[in-house]
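pipeline stage [seq->struct] | target=SDR family NAD(P)-dependent oxidoreductase | organism=Acidisoma silvae | residues=278
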Amino acid sequence: MTNPVTPLHAVVTGATSGIGRWIARGLAQSGFSLTLIARDDMRADRARRWITATVPDAAIDIIRADLSSLKETRAAAAAILSAHPRIDLLVNNAGLLSHDRQVTAEGREKTLATNLLSPLALTEALLPAMPATGRIVMIGSSSADRARIDPDDLELKQHWRMARAYARSKLALLMMSRNLAETLKPRGVTVNIVHPGLVATSIVRHGGIDEFVWQLLGRFALTPEQGAQTPLYACLSPDLAGRTGLYLKRRREAKPNALVFDRALVARVETAVTRLLG
């Protein structure tokens, strides 16, 4: 992706902390103007000031939205489109790892709503503004690699567990991202999903890992800056121009969960997801 006179525009979710801040800063350093979608105005403003401390001329808009809400997600998309008729890059980074099963005001299980439904709804809403060179980057997780999924109970109304809910949402995201990649091939817009690695962020550190286990694993964890490198590769690398439907780890294509190749299962998941999207 090269920078024309008019800067390319990127939309980034979950950019107020963790790898999202570093992704946003890396894009600003590469010449992108940015829209950050954030739930908290103060944290979003801090992120903007943090980015502009390094990239003083960065153009950064902030849209406030709770991305566990489909209504707010779609309203955010409408606000973005009114200000930016062209979206060159969408990074769906926002995620949730909840200790308790929560249900949103719209009646969706919150982990699934944040990690799966919102990225899909935002992507669908912004797609009309994306050119043939557009890229969509979904932030996934290796927790999906061994996950199992029941299309009849995506929201885990039965046997809910924090790790299971998170892994299932990321597996469903992987499935739906691959489907979307195939659908968009004729348009040229690419969709790739990235596992950033084990990163020392709050979602990992406070995600139910035993303190002793964290003491062992934590020393091998990536910093948020390091964790942002594979997502930035997916966003920016000329090597990935036109390549779509990839699952990336450490800047390389990785083998996904075998369930993503089960067409009948994926079709059932897609039907369930479509129903939940409303």
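stage status: PASS
auto-comment: Confidence is low (pLDDT under 50) at residues 204-214. The first strand starts at residue 9 and ends at 13.
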